[in-house]
Amino acid sequence: MSGSSSAFRAVLILGLLFVAMPALGELTPQQKQFLGQIDARLKQAQANLKSAEESAGTADKPATGSRANLALSRSGSALAQIKTVKDALAKLPADDPAVKAIADQAAATEKSLTALEARLTGGAAPMAAPVGAKLDYKQEKVLKDTQYYLAEVQGMAGGLEKLVAEVVAAKDADRLDHRLLGSGMATAEKAVGRKKIMDDYLAQLPKDGAGVAQTADEVAKAMARVDAASKTLAPVHARLMKIVDPASYPTLTADIARMQGLAQMYADPQVFERFPEQAAEIVGQSGAAKEEHARFVKAYDLLVAQGTEHGKRCQGVAAYFAEKYNAFTTAAAAKKAALPAEIKANIDEANKLAETAIAEKKPAFFADGGGVPQRLGWAKSKVVLLSSLDADAGKAADKSLADTQAAMKQKLASLREDIITQNPLPPDRYTAADRQAIVDRAVAAWKQTQPDAVVMMVRIPSDAWSRDAMWRLENRTWYLIDRSRLQAQVIVKHDDKLAVIRPVNLWIDHVAGDKQTAFPMDDLKAELEPSRYIQVEKVK
Q1: Are residues 350 and 444 located together in one domain of the fold?
Q2: Contact 471, 265 (CB under 8 A)
Q3: What is the SS3 assignment for 161-180?
Q4: CB 3.0–4.6 Å: which of 75, 183, 313, 319 could bond 52 by disulfide?
Q5: From what superkingdom does this record's organism come (predicted)?
Q6: What is the 3-state secondary structure (H, E, C) of 421-482?
Q7: Do 134 and 273 lie in a common domain?
């Protein structure tokens, strides 16, 4: 019983002390006070009736699932309150106008509650008139308490049956709200608890007592309905609980991390302008990334449908990837259309600068960082990008660039000595604490190629490591590539007059515990452009 029910019963017992004697004429002040308390109790029941009706919906659109259970719970509370109202009214003069008015209201409220429960539970028939030996007043109270819980369980059974109907009608039961099924199973468990209470009450009553056998039979019928519903709901509930259990997804954390990483790969369309060769690598993974997104969405579809925190996270990660990927592919299409003209413009500019350099004796145009190698470098990066976007167009652009580079070698020959004379030392900007370790690794790496090399100096043009991270699919397995890169330029004596720049790329592999490696760019026998040579006298 609730606290308010217990309090009202205490008031009822106290009220008996002053209403037990016959009342003549107008109600006494004490009886009026008692009637006011009864009226307050009736208003609570009426409020519960209103709430139950709101939860129950309309006859043409009845509530189902948790809302139906809520309506039955509220109507059950209201019926229990009406019972205490009727018990209390029986202690007052029935012919008193005020008492009669409240009694009429109580009867009307009870009628509405009975009709509502009949609609919610499918119209269970009321029990027949009790038969058997007369019970004393204490036994009658125990029987009424049992019937109170019986009404509650019957309401629960009706709600569970409606939930069963919803489950059976569902096109895909695995998409039903796990909370709804959880509420249903909790209701069934609560009904089992109520049965224990009813069994204890019935054990206190004589089996041949009036209404006892009938009540016990109704309890059995109600619990049979609950059990039948539970057998249908339990396996569905178990599947749904498995769906929402993170332990059912052993790769969830790794899958989310990968999808987040892929989203970051495609998050910056400006990479087409700033780092064309890096953009080409990303484009090369586009098809695999799109397939991985589709796999991710399918793998966690049911989890997302349940709206759990993990499901919401999966949904958000997938949506973010789709947003960034779509923006990236839009930018890729635009860049693909623009690249052939851009490459041609870079090649044309390089040829024009070369002609000017030869005509006006300006070897600096051919020097490292000069206009000619700069434009050809731009064109080379863009050819790599175009090849990733359109193989045929990339092949044509690559041939045009190769023809230009071949022609440029002939033009360089006439200015070779002048270019070498003007070549400056590479910049040297790196000053971090690990500089000497970097220098040592770069020298050691080059000496693997040229053991007898005379190293005159090491220059490091960048002031910091450059870090890049991307995901790559190889042999149907995704790998995270997270590396930092720095280039050291080892200046090696070529002869008595010239030194040569030998670039060495150094790497830190963050996935492999920050493993450090170094690889020379050059093959010892490779032909070098004039921009790679420096006069020995400048190496100081």
Answers
A1: no
A2: yes
A3: HHHHHHHHHCCCHHHCCHHH
A4: 75
A5: Bacteria
A6: HHCCCCCCCCCCCCHHHHHHHHHHHHHHHCCCCCEEEEECCCCCCEEEEEEEEECCEEEEEE
A7: no
Judge if 236 and 282 occupy the same domain. no
- Same domain? For 405 and 449 the reply is no
* 455 vs 395: CA distance, rounded Å: 39
Predicted pLDDT of residue 158: 92
> What three-state secondary structure class fits 498?
strand
Q: How confident is the model at residue 180 (pLDDT cuts 50, 70, 90)?
A: very high
Residue spans of alpha helices (H) in 245-299 = 252-265, 271-274, 276-284, 286-299
For 228, counting Cβ atoms within 10 Å of its Cβ (0-12 exposed, 13-18 middle, 19+ buried), the class is middle
DSSP letters spanning 352-408: HHHHHHHHTT-GGGGSTTSHHHHHHHHHHHHHHHHHHH-HHHHHHHHHHHHHHHHHH
Q: Which two tokens stand for residue 26?
A: 């107008």
**Residues 289 and 380 grouped into a single domain:** yes
Range of the domain at 318: 255-422
Query: Can you state the angle between helices 391-413 and 371-389, rounded to 10 degrees?
Result: 160
Answer whether 475's CB lies under 8 Å from 540's CB.
no
Q: Which of 211, 246, 281 is the last residue of a domain?
A: 246
What is the gyration radius of the CA atoms in the chain, in angstroms?
44
Contact 91, 20 (CB under 8 A): yes
In this structure, are 30 and 103 located in the same domain?
Answer: yes
End-of-domain residue from the set 246, 270, 301? 246
What DSSP string describes 326-348?
HHHHHHHHHHHHHHHHHHHHHHH
At 265, list the tokens: 């790969």
60 is a domain residue: yes
Q: What is the pLDDT of residue 439?
A: 96
334-377 pLDDT, tens digit each: 999 999 999 999 999 999 998 898 888 888 888 777 788 899 99
> How many structural domains compose the chain?
3
- AA identity, residue 4: S
Contact between 425 and 532 under an 8 Å Cβ cutoff? The reply is no
The span from the CA of 444 to the CA of 453, in Å, is 10
Tokens describing residue 536? 């020995």
Same domain, yes or no: 221 and 271: no
Rounded CA-CA distance 418/415 in Å is 5
Condensed to tens digits (0 to 9), the pLDDT of residues 499-525 reads: 999 999 999 999 999 999 999 999 888
If pLDDT is split at 50, 70 and 90, which confidence band does 175 have?
very high
pLDDT tens across 16-59, in order?
444 444 444 588 988 888 889 999 989 998 998 888 888 887 65
Identity (one letter) of the amino acid at 150? L
For the stretch 296-339, pLDDT in tens is: 999 999 999 999 999 999 999 999 999 999 999 999 999 999 99
Segment 406-417, tens digit of pLDDT: 888 888 777 888
